[in-house]
Specification:
Keywords: FAD, Flavoprotein, Magnesium, Metal-binding, Transferase. By secondary structure, this protein is α+β, with helices and mostly antiparallel strands. It has helices at residues 3-20, 51-72, 80-86, 97-112, 122-128, 140-147, 178-192, 286-299, 301-309; strands at 29-37, 40-48, 93-94, 155-158, 162-165, 198-202, 205-209, 218-223, 232-238, 241-247, 252-255, 258-261, 276-283, 315-320, 324-327, 335-337, 343-345. The structure holds flavin-adenine dinucleotide and magnesium ion (MG).
Length: 346
Amino acid sequence: MKKKTFLLAAQAFVIIFVFLLPACNPQKQMITDSAYMLGTHLQLSLWTEDKAEGMAVIRECFQRIYQIEQKMSVNIANSEVNEINRYAGKEYVAVSDDTMTVLRKGFAYAALTDGAFNPAIGPLVKLWGIGTEKERVPRLDEIQEVLKYVDYKGIKFQDENKVKLDIDGMQLDLGGIAKGYAADAVTKIIREKGIKHAIINLGGNVVAVGKKTDGTPWKIGIQDPFEPTGTHMGVIEITDQTVVTSGNYERYFMRDGKRYHHIIDPKTGYPSENGVISATIITDSSIDADALSTSVYVLGLEKGMKLIESMEGVECIIITEGKKVYLSSGLKGRLKIANDGFEIVD
Ligand code: FAD
Ligand code: MG
């Protein structure tokens, strides 16, 4: 992972952290720890009277994320996802409930978005190599060649837990959804342990458990997509919800003055370009928010907003070029703009 990307992840962490401090109170102390997994910076903070128990909970959460990464990473040779990729066009592969849940959810979002969200995006992610030492602008013929292998309908399910990719050359990549699953898994552990106040931040996939210890909602900063230095453009208050953002500032490289970022439009094979700069989803489940933030980014303002408005309990903030901010109907009046350069469009 490049240093530039790591710095951005670290800055996202600082933004959230700023709002954590006022939550401390003398009865419950904040236990916090960070780690580097899923190719990003992770931070877990929880409030408890029992420091040793709090530290044990955090350890268990990191172990759970480690397990999920071992199963779903394309960067781990013997992960279940790589096993499915290896047998593409050949055989069904039996996988764990974790991987199956993410794959079925990813497939459902692919169907819902007509393939704008695509868990079979692997060949294009590899070709562009964005965020790796191999990043480059591929030739058009190379893109056209791999586009043959990115049809999500080629993901076949059999029985409870078997998956096969129809064509040799297809490859899964769960980078747009698995962080959300990990965030939900960690939330489940924290709730089961009876912890009432926690903030989970998996490289910008944020879950706020309960309220702050003073009984007020959590304040989550929404990153200013034009300022990679880590300033927020606005603040949203949430309780027991998740906030997930997809943006073009997270992983990208510049070539000849043009920005090539990591969210790829599966229809063109190029980084998605439709005027959207960032898409933030606010809802109850982080796997849905993760898949939807990537989906809305690719669908664009009109189709993306229509999709969100059709879904119960899901809200979004879409920022476009020109610093225009579009809010779904349930968010009107809830985003406090912190930077006058942004304009909320009604
Ligand atoms: P999102 O918008 O949520 O996702 C964008 C990512 O989804 C892209 O990076 C790509 O992976 C994929 N994607 C692109 N276009 C689409 C599309 N149209 N539909 C669906 N998916 C799409 N990074 C490292 O540098 N090194 C690692 O070892 C590493 N391991 C990881 C292991 C796991 C299990 C996961 C979940 C992520 C890992 N990552 C790693 C990070 C990963 O490569 C992505 O960069 C990251 O998940 C992007 O998340 P996001 O929230 O920034 O963007
Ligand atoms: Mg996503």
